[in-house]
Predict the 3D structure of the following.
Amino acid sequence: MLMTPTIDKLHALALAGMARAFADQLERPEYAALSFEERLGLLVDREVQDRENRRLARHLKAARLRSDAVIEDLDLRGPRGLDRATVLGLAEGHWVTAHRNVLVTGPTGVGKTFLACALAHAAIRRGHTALYLRVPRLLDELVLARADGRLPRLMASWARIDVLVLDDLGLAPVPPARAADLLEVIEDRGDRRSTIVTSQLPVGRWHETLGEPTVADAILDRLVHNAYRLELKGDSRRRVTPAAGDPLEGSATPDPTITPDLPASDGPGWARRHRGGIDDPPGSTPPPIMGDVPDYPQTTERR
């Protein structure tokens, strides 16, 4: 029986993986010993795997991650506070399903971007979408989009992303008008999507960099109340020369002490209405809680 028409029809039905698997079976005589059901199952498995590989490649390309970082490349051997259970818990992606955020802070060169991209990559592998944006360029893009009429479409596209990585928050103070634009981006995602934010500044100093106080309160309220806080410490890994047989994680090796950002008391400002802990969705295994996060100082009186 001529099999070429069958293979052509599989391609016409967009079953390229199954077509390749069928051609392989025709070329390898050992498949003849299998039953029809077993061979059919192998064809279906190949098609499913082929589609998953294409989806992963497509979403990784769309994410435009700054680094090709993966969780498996994180150095879990060093004595710098990187907890294996915590990292693997975050890699499971339950925080994305629960629409929580991750805040990554630490001095320059310790691997904040690497860690953020690794978490985004893990989320993509779990079936989510992601997008990497540096905050200065995001703010510039919002200005341009408003000028040429693309702003509503751009905001809607960002709001649909499951994991938005905002890199380098607070490199320079954000003017009030641009802080208001950033608030709109964060507001569209609040409790509906997840956001990863990296910054050289500790979380306690973000308030002073985000425009006028009321806008800063609103931004931080939406970012921090359900976020995991990852504090990286140590010297810049860009200055470190790896020893033989001890490769670095890409260009930087993070050294985080990872704690969920769970406001523990009734405080001023954005933390005023958040008390107690945060419940995980059924079946999830969140990272262990290792500490509390202090409230921000309230700089203005709400009316």
User: Anything to note?
Assistant: Confidence is low (pLDDT under 50) at residues 243-282, 284-303. The CA atoms of residues 80 and 93 lie 24 Å apart. The chain is about 40% helix and 10% strand. The radius of gyration is 23 Å.
